[in-house]
Structure prediction request, 414 residues.
Amino acid sequence: MPVIEMKVPSPGESITEVQIARWIKKDGDYVEKDEELCEIDSDKATLTLNAEASGALKILAKEGETIAVGTVVCSIDTDAKGEKVAAAPAAKVEPKVAAAPAKAKEESAQAKKAEPVATKTYAEGIPSVAAEKILREKGIAADKIEGTGKGGRITKADVLNPNIIDISTRGGRNVRREKMTMLRKKVAERLVAVKQETAMLTTFNEVDMSAIMKIRKQYKDTFKETHGVGLGFMSFFTKAVCEALLSFPAVNGQIDGTELVYHDYCDIGIAVSAPKGLMVPIIRNAEAKSLAQIESAVNELATRARDGKITLEEMTGGTFTITNGGVFGSMLSTPIINPPQSAILGMHNIVERAVVVDGKIEVRPIMYVALSYDHRIIDGRESVGFLVKVKQMLEDPTKMLFGGADPTRTLLGI
Prediction:
């Protein structure tokens, strides 16, 4: 009997073991070729295992089990013939012969009462892949959420904006314990290592966002029609950061043993909060991309990261990172460096504040920004100069067209 053994693929050269996060299919299910069988967590990314052939699935590794790369986790019996698991059959109805009219009416009424149970779909109350990830992260039981998807399936939107809020457990003292995922453990180790192994400092500044908000308000519709993507703040910050990095190369560098490594390109990491932990997909050569290209890359990579579809290659090799705590309402923070990089920029929320402009008090949309940096490679002059450069670019976006130079002086050649 031909049986295909499915082994854990290698997520990367340095990864030797992984964890079975979740089985999408059940033991004994008939699966089609290329169907997703399970999700596998490594300390850097999440990947899926797809069926190499059609047949009956036999699961050999349990959810939550940590196993070595190359281990057989399931097998597929290709001799088995069948179809995907169908919906449960309707309740069996015993045949009745010459039932009296009154009795027939009674049986009909009983059948109607039982109808909701008999017609329950296979999807009712079952969370989608994305929804289940969020439920696990928040510790919410699926039966507390009302599904609005097809067939009653619980969607991601249902979990983020639940229709029913359960308050029955308030006042209790329950305690839950969950095994840390490999990704969460790796993030924890890296964050502790950064605090112990770098001379990390943080410098702050504030940015008047009036100019950028005016541009977005005036051109957002035209930008969307032209490029098919919305005009957000991240593209402006990425362009401003790239110009500042080219002016202050130490901020774009890193320490490798006893050597300093400098980059003449800007691979910008965008920190994304995903259900399984923080992920940082990379925009390669961001200094050469337009605002539209950056927005498209940010949207695509962020979506793939949140859905657990991001690859290890897409999160490796960044030279600088931007993190936006403002989307969660953060006013100010000291972001932690993403090693082996030497600096990270933290964005925060935009708040209308009273500021002095030309001797007068005005209300302006202000964002506080923070630059955490490794003082071993970046001096105070460079860190402050970098952040001031970012501020200048954002408050006068036309400077991005000329690498930070004054457009008028460039036009006049002076």
